[in-house]
UniProtKB/TrEMBL annotation:
It comes from the Bacteria. One of its GO terms (biological process) is DNA integration. Residues 1-11 have a biased composition (Basic and acidic residues). PANTHER family: INTA PROTEIN, PHAGE INTEGRASE-RELATED. InterPro entries: DNA_brk_join_enz, Integrase-like_cat_sf, Integrase_catalytic, Tyrosine_recombinase_XerCD. Keywords: DNA recombination. It comes from Thermobifida halotolerans. One of its GO terms (molecular function) is DNA binding. This is Site-specific integrase. Residues 26-224 form the Tyr recombinase domain. SUPFAM superfamilies: DNA breaking-rejoining enzymes.
Length: 254
């Protein structure tokens, strides 16, 4: 509309009069630590075990996980470069696109557990390549179909829902794994700025807003702990505190 005004195609931009409220963050149901362990246990032996483990440990978005290429990983250094996201578009089908924002393009540290899983996953992928032979699609993606092609995000969602049922867990969105990572890190006392960089948020205010309820609960736990520490000691049966000395005998009323 502003462009049309500058080009003198319309006299004024009526959209300037629109007032929008601040959108409320969408509610999410993160996994607890026990539930996260249940999910990882159920994922043992799954051909995408490394993907689910990476999702829970790093908070990567679904498209970022599916867009990872082996060239993005430095397993010796234990790092991953997040450069693209795999999305299904209406015109081009499965397409690798730039990350959501400039801040989303980042390098993250990989836990030793994920490095081990990714190395094992690479071995499995090599075996699948040998089995597929000439039918193998050399896409270069870390996580692929059994024929080497990129994984459709919808198919990953189906596999995730099946895994939840196998683990006996409530149904959540795949994106809630990202929220689970952030919530569990906050509960472990990890600083907000570190979580912001890991998740690739454009501004720390985004991280603070989304996880405000978690931070408030942790603050309440902290001040309750302090209140307990600063509380008065319990009185003894004689009505005095344990640290009080009894009055001398000559001070007693006769």
């Amino acid at each position: 509309m502003e462009h049309a005004v500058r080009e003198e195609e319309i006299p004024r931009n009526v959209a300037r009069n629109v007032r929008t409220g601040t959108p409320r963050p969408r509610r999410f149901e993160p996994l607890t630590a026990d539930e996260a362990r249940q999910l990882l246990t159920a994922a043992q032996g799954h051909r995408l075990h490394a993907l689910f483990e990476l999702a829970l440990h790093t908070g990567l978005r679904k498209g970022e996980l599916l867009g990872l290429r082996w060239e993005d990983l430095d397993l010796d250094a234990g790092t991953a470069a997040i450069r693209r996201t795999l999305q299904r578009t209406t015109t081009g089908g499965l397409t690798a696109l730039p990350t959501k924002t400039r801040a989303s393009e980042r390098r993250i540290a990989l836990p030793a557990r994920c490095v081990h899983s990714l190395k094992y996953h690479h071995e499995l992928q090599q075996r699948e390549c040998e089995t597929a032979g000439a039918a193998w699609q050399h896409s270069g993606h870390v996580f692929t179909t059994a024929q080497g092609g990129p994984i459709d995000p919808t198919n990953l969602t189906r596999a995730f829902n099946t895994l939840l049922r196998k683990a006996g867990l409530r149904r959540i969105r795949f994106h809630d794994l990202r929220h689970s990572t952030a919530t569990l890190l906050l509960e472990q006392g990890v600083e907000l700025v570190v979580i912001k960089e890991l998740l690739g948020h454009s501004h720390i205010g985004v991280t603070a807003t989304v996880y405000a309820h978690v931070r408030l609960r942790l603050q309440r736990d902290a001040i309750d702990t302090l209140g307990t520490a600063l509380g008065s000691p319990e009185p003894t049966k004689t009505g005095r505190s344990d640290g009080d000395e009894p009055p001398p005998c000559n001070a007693l009323v006769r």
